């Protein structure tokens, strides 16, 4: 008897609390099972068209598959293998090799033909096979910081233009935020500090608060607030998670704030790979 079981996992980005007032893919020899996966991906299956490019065989995902076969949790299996992903799908298959390959085009079709996945790894044994599909975390380049900041501001202002509920509280639409160079400096300093420590926190390595960092950056404020996040590779992902978190959403929708600065810092050696700081403010009157 053969079967295909699917387990999908989107990495849980660690979000900070409300504060008021890549490495290269590991080389791996392609196996018959990996070739079968890529055949399904290229040809399509069911009502789904084939997609390009082919999945890259990554040795780290082979290790993750071995960890899963040994009973490890998916998050732990990926972390031990040293592969940072924004999305993962696991296909667990049992039966004869021919049956496994035949059923990939059935039970595994949706994931194998999903263009979000770029890499693949597998582990085969007498008990069956584990296939891991992954979308790698690819942080923006440092040189893209200005474009990323503009995009975050655009998304935030789009969110503020509509009334919404943040947890239990309803917020009316709020005026758009203006960019602030000083708040951007404060955000950049804190993002770098978090990345260097590998810790997401509203407290700086020197014990500083959001308000103190804004003041240091030359911002004279009457109101200030901060959202932080880690692990999100794009402006769209980080803003969506802030909106989805009641406390962060409250900051984002607050009419008390009139200006914003945002920054990210990427460090491949840090636990999350990328850290974000978003600082809101209203200048002193």
Task: Give a structural overview.
The chain is of the alpha+beta class. It has ten helices and eleven strands. It has helices at 32-43, 59-69, 74-81, 97-104, 109-112, 145-160, 181-197, 210-216, 235-244, 246-253; strands at 3-10, 56-57, 85-94, 119-125, 128-136, 164-166, 169-171, 178-179, 221-230, 259-266, 274-283. The N and C termini lie far apart (74 Å). Mean pLDDT is 86; it is low at 1-27.
Features:
single chain; 285 residues; alpha+beta; 4-stranded mixed β-sheet; 11 strands; 35% helix; elongated; disordered N terminus
* Largest sheet: number of strands, sense, barrel closure: 5 strands, mixed
Could you tell me how far the N terminus lies from the C terminus, measured between alpha carbons in angstroms?
74 Å
**What share of the residues does DSSP label as strand, in percent?**
25-35%
Radius of gyration: 22 Å
Overall SS class: alpha+beta
Order the strands across the largest sheet as they lie in space: 1-3-5-4-2
Query: Helix and strand string, N-terminal first?
Result: EHEHHEHHEEHEEEHHEHHEE
